[in-house]
Write a structure and sequence with these properties.
Helices cover about 30% and strands about 25% of the residues. The chain is of the alpha+beta class. Helix 6 (about 355-365) crosses helix 8 (about 395-410) and helix 8 (about 395-410) packs antiparallel against helix 9 (about 415-430).
Length: about 700
Amino acid sequence: MKLLMLAAVAAVAALLSVAHAQEEVKGVSPASSAPAPSDAGSSSPSDTAVSGAPEVGSGGMPDAGAGGASGAHIPVAQDVAYPGSLTLKVDLGDLDRRIFDVHETIPVKPGPLTLLYPEWLPGNHAPRGPIDGLAGLIMTAGGHPVEWVRDPVNVYAFHVQVPAGATRLDLEFDFASPLVRDQGRTVVTPDMIGLQWNTVVLYPAGYYVSRITVAPTITLPDGWELAGALDVDNRRGTTVRFKPTTLETLVDSPLFAGRYFRSLDLDPGSRTPVHLNVFADSAETLDVRPQQLAAHRKLVQETYALLGPPHYDRYEFLLAVSDHFGDIGLEHHRSSENRRPPSYFIEWDKVGAGRDLLPHEFSHSWNGKFRRPAGLATPDFNVPMRNSLLWVYEGLTNYLGAVLAARSGLWSEDFGRQSWASLAANMDRNRAGRTWRALEDTTEQPLITARRPLSWLSWQRTEDYYTEGELLWLDIDTRIRELTRDKRSLDDFARGFFQITAGAGGSGGASVVNGVSLGPVTYTFADVVQALKTVAPFDWEKFLTERLYGHGPGAPLDGLTRGGWKLVFTETPSDYVRSVEDQRKAVDFTFSLGFAVSSLTGTLTEVRWGGPAYEAGLTMGTALIAVNGREYRSERLKTAIQLAKLNKQPIELLVKNLDRYKTVRIAYFEGLKYPALQRIDKTGDRLALILKPRT
């Protein structure tokens, strides 16, 4: 290795010398001399391209879809097959260091080559490819070092000059997975691993990822089992070889592996199997009771009844019940990655607020994977995506997840209403930012913050296309029912919208796995409007535009009203609120004093913009030390709030921020407030009809 590194130093010096000489001849930097980006589809193959891939124009700037301006040629993705098959071998055995050891072989021909590390990943809605984990990258051809140069602007691109006579490029590198939370999501623990293939692959630029073939192999720790949607070719001891597949399908087919594992058949006897693959920190948390299994099985049937037949050959839920594995809920076409606490099965009643996760991710196989917003259907993993329809992709899926949780029995009907009460209260009373920021603009939030915590969430707004989007689709569902005198509903829209023929909708060629067409079939805003009109004639364009671009006042609560219910506040938290508090390890005073406080540290985790705590100058990160002269405890604060309602005396809090202590007095006299729904007299109960099982 040391000899290779010494040789590499000489090689890179030569490569950089050529690059600098080219810049001096031009007299300007390659990036500044580049022409304006052109449409990727308008490029034609070039005789000088690597392995048949087209190069970008003479200025050296790629199409905007190729990752942005750069100092060298980055071929634009084309719908042509990459010659040969990539081989990918990943050793997952280093549990102590949490490093994935990667060996990759790429068929090549002599000349310039650009390799890309996946940046824009489906379901992430932002360029979050964890390139910071890529380490130790060494390339060789025929045993001789081949130096690479990272693009000076697009850091996900690596430029290589393949030497004469070379037919393959061998890559060795590590993926250094996070060791602590500050570095990212934990994917390796002593008892389980989550492998996302995008973290361990570099691929040649210039080709649709659906036209690049990969033959993957992994090595597992001793005694471990695995689950995922890839087809296994053979397994010998700890080595598992998968059947060759496209890079598109590979990245869309993560795997979980672990020491404690159980696979449950959710559709016994079906020709299209669905499995719940559970990985745990310990064997005892794998105990699944019959009624729990029955609810998960009913989820499959209720989903088919709502969305129509599946667009997959099989589906694999990957579920980690763990305190140590990183939190995740990520959709794929034939699988999904999910994490819930170890109590998911063994303390069933405590985790109700999280039991809509699997319905949500399962629904994505139809909405987001088979049918996909046009701006999210990209030819490779380095073309920027456009998020403007996330209120459909995620908002509708959030709504479907809640409905299916209730219809399947993962939630009770009452628990489903409680979730909508909490959702409505937060969007209506805890989103002051609506006055300046419309719902549609929140679809850009993944690009703005990458889910980093916000100082003032209620004022800045976060990814509200999920939550307010859910209320929007409840509004749509009840409006359809009202317009058709309850003869039609969103169920009719869903079955029509998600059962369109693959290849329609301008999506181009559809991917096929095991004889099943996966799409995608793309959609636009106009397609959504037209599909709604087909179910119930109405000016849906105006309806949606007002709600997507309006500024209130308040959240869209008409769906609750048409459903026969209204938002109210009580002094007792619902089971849903208690479940959320338990999972978030926080106590919720949002609708009374205007903050939430950590149940572990007594530190404020959120302060409502314009609320009593805000007016008193309190902020996130402030620690509560004492309440009315006594040591802070959550129950003591609840008592103080109730007492203030009676005696009309301000609540006195001793607080600490950084190294400063101060006493604040909050003149709040309205008592404890928790959201609930209350029936509207002399109205029909459409919410009951929405949440009623179909099978």
